[in-house]
Amino acid sequence: MTVDWWHPDLHGLVVLQGEELIFERYGEGEDYRLNEALGRVRFGPETLHDIRSVSKSVVGLLYGTALAEGAVPEPSASLMEQFPEYGDISGKDALRIEHALTMTLGLHWDESVPYTSIANSEIAMESAPDRYRFILEQPLVQEPGAGWHYTGGASALVGRIIEKGTGLPLEEYADARLFRPLGISSWEWSRGADGVVLAASGLRLAPRDLAAIGRFAMEAPLEPMIKREDGGSYGMQWYVGDGWRGAFGNGGQRLIVFPARNVVIVATAGLYNNDTATVDQLLWNTVIPAMT
What we know:
Radius of gyration: 18 Å
Shape: globular
CATH superfamily: DD-peptidase/beta-lactamase superfamily
CATH architecture: 3-Layer(aba) Sandwich
Helix content: 25-40%
Distance between the termini: 13 Å
CATH class: Alpha Beta
Structural class: alpha+beta
Strand content: 15-25%
Number of strands: 13
Order of helices and strands: EEEEEHHHHHHEEHEEEEEEH
InterPro entries: Beta-lactam-related (IPR001466), Beta-lactam/transpept-like (IPR012338), Diverse_Enzym_Activities (IPR050789)
Protein name: CubicO group peptidase (Beta-lactamase class C family)
Number of helices: 8
Pfam families: Beta-lactamase (PF00144)
Strand order of the largest sheet: 2-1-13-12-11-10-9-8
Organism: Nonomuraea soli
């Protein structure tokens, strides 16, 4: 396959069919750990890369693993009962864990502004003295379960439920139950100023290792699932379309799995806080048709 279509903002592209690596190429660009500039890097097979909100989908897999082990409550369980330390927060009794898993909490949350602004709800959460109280105190603007709304705070809640249920810090559980079993030995998971691992956005992985997670996710159960306004579905922190399931992160980070064709596609890019339409068009119009 020729690569005259390569995008200058792509940092890496990996394609697996089954266990076979059928395409791999890397680029060069500015590296970041969230908002921390790390300088210009020539990326390669072992270079860690921010996967941003793809972290959410990894957390969804971890919840599914913990659920299969009987370590966490069922999705239908009360959300507030998992956080008895916030018993003073009222009016949220209708919330269920599944509302966090499907981003249908119905809470006020706005991530439409840049992630450099305190007006962004995720950044405001990171600045709060208690991230979980901040999330749960947000006013209800919609009935829980009524509609999908992008909410990084939902992922933070799921991450904490995993910690409470397993008795392990999120990153240690991930290492023991997901990373090491898949042969992933090099990774980073950024923490907030409060020392809490950033479940919604903080994971750094090499593209090959992210592809291995994609293979793991190929047959992972993603229920409960809800329909989004664009016609797609969302479940267990994964986007689901016709024949594919995907994890998407700020800047052009993409993990797209095609179970029927046994294909996994990983893209990393440097378009942080910018329009990623050109990278997505490249993937969906050129790469995916050629690889699937």
